[in-house]
User: Fold these one by one.
Assistant:
Number 1:
Amino acid sequence: MAKKFSQTFWVANSVELLERLAYYAVFVALTIYLSNVWGFSDGEAGIISGVFSALLYLLPTFAGAYADKIGFRSSIILAFSLLTVGYFGLSIVPTMLESSGLVNYGYGNGNDSIFSSFLVEKGRVEYNTQTVFNGLENSMLQWTIVPILLLIVVGGAFIKAVISGTIARETTSENRARGFSLFYMMINIGSFTGKAVVDPIRKALGDNGLVYLNYFSASMTFLALIAVYFFYKSVQTHGQGKSFSELWKALIKLCSNVRLFVLILIVSGFWIVYQQMYATMPKYVLRMIGEGASPAWYANINPLIVFIFVNIITSFMKKKQAIHSMVIGMLIIPVSALIMASGNLIRSGTVPGLHPVAFMMIVGIALQAIAECFISPRYLEYFSLQSPKGEEGLYLGFSQLHSFFSSLIAFISSGFLLEKFCPNPKLFTSQKAYEEATANAHYIWYVFVGIGLISSIALLIYSKVTNSMDKKLSK
């Protein structure tokens, strides 16, 4: 197999694995990191995470155009340089603030801890101490994280564009399907491995682990940078590609295509629910189960299920219309959110060896992964078929706009829902007040059940309307 692909192909795949490993190690814990280390409220953390994720889906097409101008090798070296500095900054800046005395990431005792002793009795924490914040909450110093995150956004945008472009240019019509299959496999391996390192570090070091975790990600991207510098042979693209003005016109043209734009908005409903795996789930399980919960491992159910079932489901549905496969996936998604909500209603001990919230969260995430298998591959197929002839590639560059919209809505709504139904325990000093505040924590998931149902119904209507339109046009 190695002989069928070029050295550049294998280098691109290898560094993609390292980049995904670094990204998911940080992203799965990003909202916790923003609140527990930087002192942001749930709402503020949701806004920052939402904008961060949304830009990562909007910018790659524009970054790809610039990469075509300056060459892939220069672009990928720039990308990994930015990522390394960015991830390093997420660790070094909090450490510098601690050294300056502006913030203390040490541990307090049971009386001055941000968690009260009743949380130990309820099993919410494993020890009667937790990180104490001094200086960052309600301070302008909090916002020094924004330029650091922007470095990661820009670097990530180049990676998304350049690596997939390299795979396309380093494969032929005979081995392209196999090449992209390997590429997708590397993404899933990186996703799984990156999340796997989070919980052990967090449990061993507490909130300090969330800081040190970024050193791990920085080392992965730095290793990728070295690999690219020595082994990546440039794909000659200087002066090629479309200008930013051409891409902007294409984006406006896509948004004016009612049929495609409505589809993007409907499918966004699926991704709004799906992204709660990163937006709501980590904080929710830690607050409802305790510090012994393993949210990153729960999230890892997704790439595992997708890896096992995506080809099976795609093959099973290949004779069905793409829109029908998408409808099935969309109908599954509200069921997954309803299952996630039910964990808070099941008595402890019902599921041997697992907290009910953890068990139902795992089942819900598994169902979301199955839904993804029905939707994602066929969505791109359907989108390409509905794009104007000769402009499929340009339109597909903006096909991920659903993730731009869904990231903003998913993370921002999650932040405010957490504040209302599952607030941070550090805000409470009594058992009764905290238990009253979190009694209806599962209501968060009912909101996403509603979004999933509305999206499912909308896609069913869309399917019937577009099929009717196509029949009339074919006559």
Number 2:
Amino acid sequence: MPLTHDCLNKYAEALLWGLMKARTGRFKRGDIVLIRYDAPALRLAEILYDRLLGMGINPIARAGLSATMERSFFEKANGSQLVFHPPGETELYGSLNGSIFIYAPESLTHLKDCDPKKIARSLIARKALREILDRREETGEFGWTLCTFPTTELAKNANLSLAQYTEQIIKACFLDSDNPASTWETIYKEAGAIKKWLNGMDVSYYHIQSENIDLRIKPGAKRRWIGVSGHNIPSFELFVSPDWRGTEGHYFANQPSFRSGNYVEQIRLVFEKGCVVSSTASTGKDFTRQQLSMDKGAGRIGEFSLTDRRFSRIDRFMADTLFDENYGGRWGNCHIAVGASFSETYDGNPTDLTKAMKKSLGFNDSALHWDMVNTEDKIVTARLSDGKAITIYENGIFCC
């Protein structure tokens, strides 16, 4: 069942709300917004293109590689082709004011036989472009959002029919409401109260405990919880980029993960002194280990996140990180990401955050950012600097 014309227009409204909310600076006529989309999402991209033109913004539409093209690239590209940037790409990224990405994959496992080292090399080469956008976002000149468009491939890998998958997207993004943007604004305000509560604590470390998790995470100095900021539609998670050096214990991802055309299941990680010292997976073990050795920061934590089930209506595995990291269900979810941290979680002026400061504060740097989701019943305790312990998350909800 495809999204109806009415749903597509509501989806566009929600995405434009997200784009405007995600940027700290205001959009103005003449700004440049890049629309990246996979081929099945053309109809939604067309609506967004039309809306942005009507706002006086200059949209640039760019279709993604097909699965066949992407597989050909990683099979046949030589060393120079793997790191090639088209002429003008750096200049374009240095001028962008916004970006909307519509994820609509026609295949999830088309790269499973490709060399992970070649995939990693290409990702590392594009890290410089990502850093341009990060810096522009820190100065308020750039904002971004993204979403998922239902495809047969996504539905198949989630063990759902296309109609069921589409219904999950409609529910999760509030496309069944009269005004999705208004609903998102309400959640934005409610999440703001929780973030204020979390950020009012002087925390030494967080202790996450479930049947298969026993992990301590040190938030570090000058940190703040962020989330529900418009960056993702849907997004219900609240998260922080901790001081990677204070991570100790073991973590388990009971949600499967599709990454770089590979399927990975039941990841177990052991951290000592902030670094992954042991990793296993029931499926994709070798791929996981290769990813974690992509660069120096790939085996360190870049994010810790919690989702309140009272916000999220997602109750099925969706074979898509955007939805799975925002899973509500019975117990909500937590996830960690290995790899790159988010400078937005710096509690200060992000433009003052130099590379040297990031390093001294324990913000992790990597070309990797891999979200690993756990949906088990869990308790998260904040151990305060004065020695007191406060339960901040239990039974899938924040305890404020």
Number 3:
Amino acid sequence: MKHIAGKLIKIMEECSIIRKNGTNDFHKYKYATSADVLEKVNAALVKNKVASVVIPELVESADVITGKGNTEHLVTVKVDIILTDSESGECLTITGLGSGQDGGDKAVMKAQTAAIKYAYMLSLAISTSDDPEADSRTDEAGSQAEAVKPSNVMTKELLCSDCRVKITAGIQNVSMNKFGRPLCLKCQKKTQGAA
């Protein structure tokens, strides 16, 4: 693995920072676009003669009710990205998870895009020059919501705060943003109906 590891160090140096050029006008925040990440990573991979192949897997798919009462599809996708050194033949697999929600047929594509983008960003230690956890709204919501029990944190098991059923990280993220606490899809629907 020393050949591909050496190349990954060069790739990490070339991709160390990606600026946030995208803007979400609705929620008023800036983000690193998938196009910017893929452009920079692809250029570094090609330059260092490392090929990448993405293998997606659908982890979860469900319908959710939006705040406006519309039904949308919520999908969580896992991607394995196989990196192959074209000169030594050594391979390394990196993995990412992503969730996407859409009223049409784009939920899977959104989930795949997020999974690929974050697999590269986390595995190659790509910085956006800020701290994504520095979100006061999420911090405030988290302090008001029931905390995940320490035993769950130790096992990395994510549970619905109402019914204690297992949930995925993608469902937890969506639930935290919408309801301020981790809820399974069934409890999200109940909570949405009660609002």
Number 4:
Amino acid sequence: MSKLAPSARTTVKRKPDRARYDRETIYAILDQAFVCAIGIVADGLPVVVPTNYVRVGDRLLLHGSTASRLMRTLAGGAPCCVSVTLLDGIVFAPTATGHSVNYRSVVVMGTARVIESPEAKLAAMRDFVEYVNRGRWAAVRPPTDQELKATMVVELPLVEASAKVRTGFAVDDDEAYGSAWTGVLPFAWTPGAPVRDPRGNAEAPVPDNISRYVRPQ
């Protein structure tokens, strides 16, 4: 995969040694994460909205109600900032200010555009469902025409994007170490046991793609 040329908006200035601009790293983080935060300016005020997304090729797809302030703002051509973070561990340092976290994060800047075609919107909805759980689309009812009309889908090209990654232990000087325990407490996203919906089919077995769920899909 190629590298993205860092722009003035995506160049990492704080701890630049942790910056990554290659698509392989950026896409791997996006494909494992599940929720992003989208920053916009609406009615003169900054707004940050959490939502889910899906990466399809070199673009992010976002969807929501046609009545949503976020979607209407994006559809109007407002610039936006999308951020995603994966927590990999808590770093316990010998000093109070040395504590940190290991993480992988991505920031995407740009302007989204609306997907108008009903066929493209339907394909996007399939991508959203499959991103949640591969193979799920074939098991559920697809969106109705009315549901599609009530849903807006926008695409954000992955042109201005950068990743930032921290790994390892504390960065305190050697003389700061004393009797306190130091190290890393790793974090990993692991699903629990599936909980059956009481209104669902009581005889339906839990599918393998749910009982053995992993990310990325």
